[in-house]
UniProtKB/TrEMBL annotation:
PANTHER family (UniProt xref): DNA REPAIR/TRANSCRIPTION PROTEIN MET18/MMS19, MMS19 NUCLEOTIDE EXCISION REPAIR PROTEIN HOMOLOG
Self-association state and partner proteins as the record states: Component of the CIA complex.
Domain MMS19 C-terminal as annotated: residue spans: 551-937
UniProt domain MMS19 N-terminal: residue ranges: 40-298
Function of the molecule: Key component of the cytosolic iron-sulfur protein assembly (CIA) complex, a multiprotein complex that mediates the incorporation of iron-sulfur cluster into apoproteins specifically involved in DNA metabolism and genomic integrity. In the CIA complex, MMS19 acts as an adapter between early-acting CIA components and a subset of cellular target iron-sulfur proteins.
Protein's UniProt name: MMS19 nucleotide excision repair protein
Record Pfam families: MMS19_C, MMS19_N
Gene3D superfamilies assigned to the protein according to its UniProt record, in alphabetical order: Leucine-rich Repeat Variant
Coiled-coil stretches: none
Cited InterPro entries: ARM-like, ARM-type_fold, MMS19, MMS19_C, MMS19_N
Principal localisation: cytoplasm
Biological process per Gene Ontology, one example term: DNA repair
Similarity comment text for this entry: Belongs to the MET18/MMS19 family.
């Protein structure tokens, strides 16, 4: 033991390797082979040394061992000694303070720490510690001590009263580090709500308020944001009632600022004041608050930008909620008086429906009306009567009146107000919806659309006779040739009506017009009705009806089938109710009908225009796959078991495509498309028999079939099966066998090499996404295949697939295994060989490697690209000329990098800006000119010192582009030139 302690003494005295030594000591103490007291006694010579550096080493060792012991290790007597020791060291020398603070931070969390010990700590700290003279890390340590005390031991220090409060506020007074400030702002509300502020309330507020509004500019390295700081600061300023007298004037004062961000912060603070402080305190400032809010909301100036105006309306709403709490001498007295002020201020805008602020004023009043039923009734009475009495309104006025009445109606419905109960409207309330119905039949789209929007809002309050007219309007519009925007609003009304009046909609609209779907030969009209019916896919009441009508229109005629499948595809993509897809998957549901019909149609070779039509099959495959994807595993298993018998030839028998008859070849080619749609999104927990055989059959079909859709489906299915089911070393032989077979296929001149390349690409992607052990072997093979003059260009698609994420295949939604960051790993593996071979390969195949490099870059961020950027950039620059074939792709890559503000590009601005200018003028293709201009626009994100030398040349050359014959190009030129003109003009936000 003596030997161990002597070694400790020597090491601590020199200050070398204290941490590892203390690790050993702590283990000895925990193992009961050494006591903490013995360890401290061994440090006596060090701790009493006249050399402060040696004493500091001793304190470091003391705290290091202390921190490695559990929080419940020491008994109270031992902790009393430790706290006394730390307090003595705290006042020993100022250089000891950082390490002693760390010791205090750890010991205050210990289980047996007593109130007396905590008081001792702060009695030592308060007279001897000036927080703001310490380093940032040491201040942070002290704030962490305070945080723990606030949350867990505040009652122990409550008796210290103003002295402790003064310690806290003086410690943060002048703090500038954002990381320390966010910590303080988050913990102060807890402290201030639970500690008496007394006569220091104003001083406490002033210390916090000096940071308002937050003046902090984020950088890429910032761990916190300006919004986080601002939000937490506002919570501090409004956390206790004592702050009300200081906070409201502060918010109002800062609202006068010209900076938009200061206005937003002040409005947010004022809103919190209304929400958190006693309404009586708010009442004192009500006139001043309204004066400022009125200037923001009801004036059409730059200061009243939409964001600021919305924030001001939020304050007004909070203020009105506050007023409803105040009880005056008469009921609603305060609220009524304030509403009168608001209505009076709004009156001049309401009288002139063509005024810029007419609709903003209506929106303001609606926000006010949603604060209480009393406010809602008063505002509705004022606005409705004013608008209903307008006669001889012009077209533009009608549009605004409809919009305004729609907004007010929506307010009343949200507040549960019956229109007939509004004073002055007892006999006129029906006029409102009649007004909407009248103008919904107007021929002008600009009138019809707002009327339909207002009708949608009013649907649930329409009378029976109004609903009959409403249904006639909907029927007429569904059948008519109308614009997409009008059809969208019509279907929104149809869906809203179906939500509240299901039986009426079924009886008055659907059943009344269902004969059109059954008998009419007008495919366009049938399409309109079927789309309308499918729009009801969120209502369970109509599930059976939708399923039956869709089934009735499939497989009858080619045009009808294509139209029905398009409607069904849109329905599945856009439906919000997943229960509809479960209904389709139920026994005897739509999925059962589709699979049975197409299996029988393909096998019987019936109606080839429908059952072997690739456009139709694509939609059928999408529908089946989408339904299988969302249903649960038991439902998937049931469907697979039900239909697997029909695919027995592919699932359980070896296929030799060349020996099949023409009929059998056709059947197999189309059946594998249906099989893929079932298996693609099947949960991998559902085990398949004969997976190896199925994979080999899919490769056989994808290789030999002349049907391009069969080749693609079979290739994808092979990839999916490998990803889901081929795991473990025992399957490595299969992967090697597949590779060998495909290599042999490439050498057969009788085969369609394109089919083989597609299969290689899909298997390579499957292995790569999964992170399979054979992945690199297949990627290397793909790299080598790029060099082949016959099919190297086809092989570039493999490198495109490796970076693309497909929504329908080989993703987690399809229950495939997807390795995290797989694209980045592939990029890092292939990029150097691609660049190297591009530089060394002969001209005919060189291009294949360049294309592959562009594809790989397109799927990765700058973080991944940066280590290789110096090698890639010369290739990109080389492509930035009009005569290059891949200039658009290179430009798009450049644009992505510029949008992400890739730092390294800043040093090359002088190299590529002239090339971009040349492309924006010289390219024959509009898309290239537009993307080049977009690149130039994004260049302005870089530093002024780099841009200024180029400014004159860029503006001169862009002026020439203003005569471009394409309007979209000219629009982009104006946008880009404006930005370059203003690069050296600082705006308020900067």
């Amino acid at each position: 033991m003596t030997h161990v302690l002597k070694d400790i003494l020597d090491i601590v005295k020199t200050g070398n390797d204290i941490d590892s030594t203390c690790e050993v000591v702590s283990k000895e103490i925990l193992g009961k082979r050494l006591t903490f007291l013995q360890f401290v006694e061994s440090l006596e010579e060090i701790l009493t040394s006249t050399d402060k550096d040696i004493r500091l080493n001793g304190v470091n060792a003391f705290v290091a061992v202390l921190k490695k012991l559990p929080l419940d290790f020491f008994i109270p007597e031992e902790l009393d000694y430790i706290s006394q020791f730390l307090c003595e060291r705290f006042i020993d020398h100022h250089s000891f303070i950082p390490i002693v603070l760390i010791g205090i931070e750890y010991t205050v969390k210990m289980k047996n720490i007593s109130k007396q010990m905590i008081v001792r700590y702060f009695n030592t700290i308060m007279p001897h510690f000036h927080c703001q003279s310490q380093l940032q890390n040491d201040r942070n340590t002290f704030y962490c001590i305070l945080q723990y005390i606030f949350l867990n031991r505040l009652d122990d220090l409550r008796f210290m009263g103003p002295d402790f409060l003064y310690c806290v506020i003086s410690s943060m007074d002048g703090e500038r580090d954002p990381n320390n400030l966010i910590l303080l702002f988050r913990m102060l509300p807890q402290f201030l709500r639970n500690f008496p502020l007394g006569h220091l309330a104003e001083e406490t507020f002033d210390v916090i308020a000096c940071y308002f509004p937050i003046d902090f500019y984020e950088t890429e390295e910032s761990k916190i944001t300006r919004d986080e700081l601002a939000t937490n600061l506002s919570r501090c300023l409004t956390c206790v009632e004592e702050f009300a007298d200081f906070c409201i004037p502060l918010a109002l004062q800062k609202l006068e600022a010209s900076l938009k961000v200061a206005k937003l912060d002040s409005l947010h603070l004022l809103k919190l004041c209304c929400e958190n402080f006693d309404p009586v305190k708010i009442k004192v400032h009500i006139e001043e608050i309204w004066r400022i809010l009125k200037m923001i909301i009801m004036t059409d100036t730059e200061d009243s930008a939409d964001e600021v105006r919305e924030a001001a309306i939020g304050v007004l709403t909070a203020l009105l909620y506050s007023l409803t709490i105040i009880k005056g001498d008469n009921e609603q007295e305060q609220l009524s008086n304030f509403l009168d002020i608001i209505l009076k201020s709004s009156n001049r805008f309401l009288l002139d429906t063509q005024a810029t602020l007419f609709i903003p004023s209506i929106k303001l009043l609606c926000s006010v009306g949603k604060t209480s039923n009393y406010a809602c009734l008063k505002i509705a009475n004022k606005v409705y009567l004013m608008l209903l009495d307008k006669s001889d309104a012009s077209r533009s006025e009608i549009i605004r009146i409809i919009e305004a009445m729609g907004l007010v109606t929506n307010m009343c419905i949200q507040m549960g107000i019956d229109l007939s109960s509004i004073p002055g409207l007892e006999k006129r309330w029906e006029e409102i919806c009649c007004y909407f119905l009248l103008y919904a039949q107007n021929e002008l789209p600009e009138i019809k659309i707002p009327a339909l929007k207002a009708l949608k809002v009013s649907t649930k309050i329409l009378t029976n006779s109004q609903r009959q007219n409403y249904y006639c309007v909907i029927i007429t519009l569904i059948k008519s040739d109308i614009t997409d925007s009008i059809r969208k609003e019509t279907l929104s009304c149809f869906k809203e009506a179906a939500k509240y009046f299901k039986e009426e909609i079924n009886r008055e609209i659907i059943q009344f017009n269902v004969n059109i779907l059954n008998q009419s030969n007008d495919i366009i009209l049938k399409s309109k009705w079927l789309n309308a019916l499918c729009s009801l896919g969120n209502e369970e009441y109509f599930f059976g009806l939708i399923s039956d009508i869709l089934s009735a229109n499939l497989s009858v005629k080619q045009a009808e089938t294509e139209m029905t499948l398009k409607c069904l595809r849109d329905l599945i993509k856009n439906t919000e109710n997943i229960n509809l897809l479960h209904h389709f998957a139920s026994k005897d549901g739509l999925l059962n009908f589709i699979l049975t019909t197409w299996i029988n149609g393909i096998k019987s070779c019936a109606n080839l225009n429908i059952f072997r039509n690739e456009i139709i099959l694509e939609d059928v495959s999408f529908v089946i796959n989408s339904i299988i994807k969302v249903i649960n595993t038991s439902e998937q298993l049931q469907i697979f078991n039900q239909f697997s018998q029909y695919f027995d030839d592919i699932l359980n028998m070896t296929i030799n495509y060349k020996t099949l008859s023409d009929i059998q070849q056709g059947i197999h080619s189309y059946m594998v498309i249906l099989l893929e749609s079932i298996l693609n999104s099947l949960n991998k927990n559902i085990k398949l028999k004969n997976v190896t055989l199925l994979i080999e059959n899919c490769i056989e079909l994808s290789t030999y079939s002349n049907n391009s859709m069969c080749c693609l489906s079979a290739s994808r299915l092979t990839a999916t099966l490998i990803n889901k089911y081929i795991d473990g070393d025992e399957y490595n032989f299969l992967i090697d066998k597949l590779k060998l077979n495909l290599e042999n296929y490439l050498n057969l001149s009788s085969l369609n090499v394109h089919n083989v390349i597609i299969q290689i690409s899909w298997i390579t992607k499957s292995l790569s996404v999964k992170g399979h052990g054979k992945m690199l072997q297949w990627i290397d093979w793909s790299l080598n295949l790029l060099a082949d003059p016959l099919y190297g260009k086809m092989m570039t698609q493999c490198f495109k697939m490796l970076t693309q994420t497909d929504d329908g295949y080989l993703n987690k939604e399809c229950f495939c295994s997807v390795k995290l960051l797989y694209r980045q790993r592939i990029f890092c593996y292939v990029i150097e060989p691609l660049i190297s071979r591009y530089n060394t390969m002969p001209e005919p195949v060189k291009e294949n490697y360049l294309i592959s490099i562009l594809y790989q870059m397109d799927g990765n961020t700058y973080v991944t690209l940066s280590p290789y950027f110096s090698k890639i950039l010369p290739l990109l620059l080389q492509l930035l000329s009009p005569e290059q074939d891949y200039v658009l792709q290179s430009l798009q890559t450049f644009r992505n990098l510029l949008e992400s503000k890739t730092p390294v590009l800043e040093d090359y601005l002088q190299s590529f800006v002239p090339k971009l200018l040349n492309l924006s003028q010289s390219s024959k293709f509009m898309n290239i000119r537009i993307v080049a201009l977009q690149c130039l626009y994004n260049c302005c994100d870089y530093s002024l010192i780099k841009l200024l030398p180029l400014k004159r040349q860029v503006i001169f050359e862009l002026t020439k582009c203003l005569d471009d014959k394409k309007r979209l190009v000219r629009k982009e030129v104006v946008r880009t030139k404006s930005r370059w003109l203003s690069i050296d003009v600082l705006n308020d936000d900067d």
